[in-house]
Write a structure and sequence with these properties.
Helix content is 21%, strand content 26%. With 164 residues, the chain is an alpha+beta fold. It has one domain. Strands 3, 5, 6 and 7 form a 4-stranded antiparallel beta sheet that branches. A hairpin with a 2-residue loop joins strand 6 and strand 7.
Length: 164
């Protein structure tokens, strides 16, 4: 038993070392980018950010010379939420997807990570009291997650956050 625990500890430390301390596709340090001036919550291109998240996850989950996955959310997936208009501070539902049949949270993946655009001048806090849920919408499967949103700018439109 002691050998198994030691091996698990060594594997965990190796995984942490391989991952480094930066989150996937870390943004450059420094001042937050200016928000858009047209009333949108963010000016980032969701397709570009999805590509960055997928590439970052792929680099973390397949270290050179290894074939193992290091994280519970290790798949190369990343999904943008449908745009949400933020009327002010409050609770909002974010719908991610569509997700394939293989996406079966909480079985696979067993954990989720979320990313908020760097130019959003507010805060998105995922609601840990409510579990994300798989739902059907227009004949497709989506994952709905719940969050509290605050914005330093007041109301804004089309906030998109990312699940990876």
């Amino acid at each position: 038993m002691r050998i198994r625990i030691t091996a698990a500890l060594i594997a965990s430390l190796a995984a942490l070392a391989a991952c480094g301390s930066d989150p996937p596709a870390a943004r450059p340090a420094g001042a937050r980018p200016d928000p858009p001036t047209d009333g949108r919550c963010t000016g980032i291109d969701p397709a570009v950010r999805l590509g960055q998240l997928r590439a970052a996850k792929a680099s973390l989950t397949r270290p050179p010379g290894k074939d193992s996955k290091l994280a519970a959310n290790a798949g190369e997936y990343a999904y943008a939420s449908a745009p949400v208009d933020v009327a002010g501070a409050g609770k909002y539902t974010f719908r991610f997807g569509p997700v394939p049949a293989a996406f079966d949270y909480p079985t696979s993946p067993s954990s989720l990570s979320f990313d908020t655009p760097g130019d959003f001048h507010g805060q998105v806090t995922m609601d840990l009291q409510r579990d994300p849920a798989l739902v059907q919408h227009d004949g497709a499967r989506f994952l709905e997650a719940y969050a509290e949103v605050t914005s330093d700018l007041g109301p804004c439109t089309a906030l998109v956050i990312f699940l990876y």
